Amino acid sequence: MSLSMYQASIPVLIRGITNLAAILDKAAAHAAAKNIAPEVLLNARLAPDMFPLVRQVQSVSDTAKGCGARLAGVEVPSFADTETSFAELGERLAKTVAFLQTLTPEQVDGSEERPITLKVRSQEIHFTGQTYLLGFALPNFYFHFTTAYGILRHNGVDIGKADYLGSV
């Protein structure tokens, strides 16, 4: 049996977001236990020219909802980037999962050749659904997820590979 576009995208994105939400819960608990102002972690970066944790999480959300919507041929939901707490980031991730759960296999399957155009800065990038999913959306999703994980691990949050992968 072949792997469908739906199977390769929506459940994968939901699982990653769910794992990231659990990691953020651990980060909030870590900050409280160690008397660290949450803003210290929320604004932490791996390097000065990289986005802080808040923006990394927003990017995970944006990439996931954009991927699902584009593959399904529906409007990408717009979320304001106003989160300033772990609770607000958790709410954003929950809204992202709720949106992805509205997408059906019938909407996504068969999108391998669907033309997808992204406007990035002043240029357009053109993909087919399959090249978008495998060559852009999933790598981008995992880049921001991994960076968020790395920021928190670097700052002493007790997380490991099992947290990143979640339950199998």
UniProtKB/TrEMBL annotation:
Enumerate the Pfam families for this protein. DUF1993
| Gene3D superfamilies in the cross-refs | dinb family like domain (1.20.120.450)
Matching PANTHER family, A to Z?
A: BLL2446 PROTEIN, DUF1993 DOMAIN-CONTAINING PROTEIN
What name has this protein been given in UniProt?
Answer: DUF1993 domain-containing protein
